[in-house]
Amino acid sequence: DAPGHRDFIKNMITGTSQADCAVLIVAAGTGEFEAGISKNGQTREHALLAFTLGVKQLIVGVNKMDSTEPPYSETRFEEIKKEVSSYIKKIGYNPAAVAFVPIS
Asked: Which keywords belong to this entry (predicted)?
């Protein structure tokens, strides 16, 4: 486990370099997801670091599904899944082999 705060990136890199699998937590809240997946967002940064450090198995947890509009929106989940899949494919993951799990 490595916290997502920027102050802990060094710890995240250390932990990730020893991992066999990564669980990438993505916030589903409006604005939160968009910030994370933006050009300099932490979602992108963490996924890229995980792949670069040799973690070839990835699970994506779509968190805060209770804060979507409406709560637990399947449409929002699918939108996030599509956008994250597009990005992780670009960096080398096979989105078909990545589990996306809605959580709260």
From this structure: Elongation factor, GTP-binding, Nucleotide-binding, Phosphoprotein, Protein biosynthesis
pLDDT, tens digit only, all 104 positions of the chain? 455 566 767 777 787 888 999 999 999 999 999 999 999 998 999 999 999 999 999 999 999 999 999 999 999 999 999 999 999 999 999 999 999 999 98
By CB atoms closer than 10 A (0-12, 13-18, 19+), residue 60 is buried
CB 91 within 8 A of CB 79: no
Residue of 85, 79, 90 lying closest to 60 (CA atoms) = 85
Domains of the chain in start order, with CATH, are 6-102 (3.40.50.300)
**Predicted TM-score (pTM) of this structure:** 0.88
